[in-house]
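Translate sequence into structure tokens.
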Amino acid sequence: MVGGWRGGGIVLKSPREIELMRAAGAVVYRVLAEMRKLVKPGVVTRELNCCAEEIIGRAGGTALFKGVVSPQVRYPFPAALCVSVNEEVVHGIPGDRVLREGDIVSIDCGVRLNGYCGDAAETLAVGTVSDESQRLIDVTRGALELAVGEIAPGRNWSEVAGGLQRYVEDAGLSVVRDFVGHGIGRDMHEEPKIPNFWDGRGRNEDFRLQVGMVLAVEPMVNLGTHLTRAGRDSWTVTTRDRKYSAHFEHTVAVTACGADVLTDGRC
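Result follows.
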């Protein structure tokens, strides 16, 4: 889930804290792995959320997103998952919608376990999708992989973000600017903000990667314009031109050797 920071400085995590976050990330991984099995034509999005809540509860965790409040929305987020279909970018609320052949669905999951958080997202094809939709999914996944591969202590985030943006735009797609990734630890949203683009105007928000940082890196990529707007329920964000959007995310620790992905299922 994107948006909403508590302020304050960047909190570096100890090796012990990173392992606790990996345990939370393992629960997130199990949820998303089950979603890959469940997502198919005819499935109701509420069923996906019910399954996620069961997995999280069995693991002894709590759903990070459920009950989150936003000053722009009159009611707390009501689900464990964000389920965003087609032109929905982020924060889609699972409900009565039936997934149909050719849809794409972005599923975002966050878990707190033993006081620490993990957060990841993936976009899945529903049955057979168009070549255009599959390319969108592939490029967005590739953008996340590129960013993770470029993370190393001593680099400025602007270098990573600029490369991610170029990769996406060279494919003829656009990077969402209205929503960005975030630091993560004991809280879901910590400093710093993690943009997926760099235009040089936010120099005062750039930061140098350091060992012990843990980042939720989450590119959101659109087929058309990067512009977004709020949906009718106020939580769901859609593309301005109603073209499809995809979203991938990992929780990533910065180590002396580079990036350590905490939500990829490795123990």
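Note: The helical segments are 15-38, 45-58, 131-150, 157-170.
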